[in-house]
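[scheduler] slot 2 assigned
[scheduler] job type: sequence-to-structure, two independent chains
[scheduler] chain ordering preserved from manifest
[runner] begin chain α
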Amino acid sequence: MKARSRRWLVTTAVSAALLGCVTTPEGGGGYARSSALPAPPEPADNPTTPAKAALGKQLFFDPRLSGDGSMACQGCHYRHLGWTDGLPLSRKVGGGMNTRHTPSVYNTGYYTSWYWDGRAKTLEGQVTAAWKAQIGADPARAAAVIAAVPGYQAEFQQVFGAPPNADNIAQALAAFLRTLNSGEAPWDRYQAGDQTAVSGDAVAGYELFVGKAGCAACHKPPLYSDSLFHNIGLEAGKASPDPGRFTVTKEARDMGAFKTPSLRSVSISGPYFHDGSVSSLEAAVRYMAAGGKADANKSGLLTDRRLSDREVGQLVAFLATLTSHERFAPPRLP
């Protein structure tokens, strides 16, 4: 028991030291949140604290949360892949396949709805839904497993004044996710005055992004998303098209519409789109710049921009400058 207690103390200290940004620009992880990004909003009933986020970080990497102990939340979200999994579609605990590509959890705290169709209204709700559906857990049973770990017992008492349960585990996980904010990317440094931070092609790509290519109409800086839902034609011609946002709203205009993803660190988070159908960033840019496939509900914002090969390359060069490289290390588990 004494050895486990000492291990918990070391784990807590290490997790706190490795924790990324919480609500201030300078984070415990040793990097500054992008100067372009404000502190992410947080609910009044679940304010983010360093201790809570550090606890959530441990839980995020702990496979004991899953239904069979085989998969952690992190199993679909890898830092070096832009907090995605690099797969078109991922497998769930139990063997079932997802029907949509794993979205990045980078900057997820800035959204107002979650999942590709926006069906989750809170980040805590999204965490609980994924806990059940993706890693096959009964939250009450999983909480009992976590509660049997002495290190977690002490941490939950410190953070919540209560033992682990389904609600406060979800709160800790959400608090951690709100710290996964982009650090300074080369484009941020360029906009802050460092003229050497990016190439001439990247600068030309930005001018295309906000001008001729029309990308910024939906991918609005500084998050490079409008957090809204658009049909870009990807479901056209499929035998069983995904209804997307329509499933939530039941409004015809939302048929085949999906949430605009953020483009921060997009160059490392492929494959692309809600169905993971496009393997390279260049191919994704070409698809969007050409106006997508014909679809009765396709967004009017999507038209053929008639870009040259050079212009496509310049857009890709600009998008690469949105990649940040924060210091991050996985936690030790109690």
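[runner] end chain α
[runner] begin chain β
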Amino acid sequence: MGDVINIYAGGVIHDVLYRHLVWVDGGKAQVLRERHVPRWKEGGLGGAVVQVAAYDVIATLLSEIDRSEGELVFCRNRADFDQRPDGSFGLFMSLEGHATMAGNLDALHLLAEIGITAFTFSHNLQNLLCTGCNERYGDGGFTHIGKATLRELETVPMMVDLVHMSRGSFWDALDIYDGDLFVSHSNAAAVFEHPRNLTDDQIRAVAERNGVIGLNTFRGYVSAEPRKATLSDLIDHAMHMYDLVGAEHLSIGADYSSAPELLHNVLDFVDPEGAQGVGGGEGIEIYHSGPEGIEDESKLDKIGAALAERGLSQEEVDLVNGESYLRMLDRVHS
């Protein structure tokens, strides 16, 4: 059984940046190593994907990696992950490209050279690139700048993540972009209808593009009654997608935050009217822990065990735990 990889380590970056700001000697802060990696390892993780939105955020993570005495390894591709020293933790970076770097096509080449492995277009709302899943005025789609960005991404070794976007934007992306696509953290709309979850047609479309879909532990996307959400409810989503497309298109995109109070403004921004159960204070409450039985990252190994109980083979469980994501990453760099 290989190491588990969380392909969306959610609000972790907010915790890292905040503690670097308030640390007496911020230049020596080791937030990942001291606060997050022990819990990740307890849950069987050997790697995680952390989101970045600007050069200074990349610099902050690289500084923590350099000071970790080899415990953290920056992974630019599959080989970096597979060949890292025993006991070390592999850290991948994904760009939230809808933020300060939106429209900077030349920057994509530098970011790919640095080792950023994926590009995200939206965080629920309309932006310079596309329409998000929480826009009240309809599904929208990609802007001219967003379309140009998609085309430029075909020239660099960086994966395209269609998470957070409206269904109109999703189908736009498939029409414009010819490469592999994935969705880092979403569940099945057929199990629980929510704008953040994927329809069966979307799930099949991702699979047809050789992509993966990361199971999202955020309770508000698992169940219509988020406070009662359980690991079994999350596995219902997994099994629905498994029946549609197989284990080779499933992964783990566990969206946790050890300090959800730091995300209050972010959650209100992406859901200003509370329409998705994320903003207006409710999101903070349900972000404090994952579904019952998988409350935080230290229990992520329970996903594999639960899938095995539902009938998946060990080979299939290994695919969900990280192998499916690594294969996709390998194709991008081949």
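[runner] end chain β
[qc] chain β: The CA atoms of residues 17 and 57 lie 8 Å apart.
[scheduler] slot 2 released
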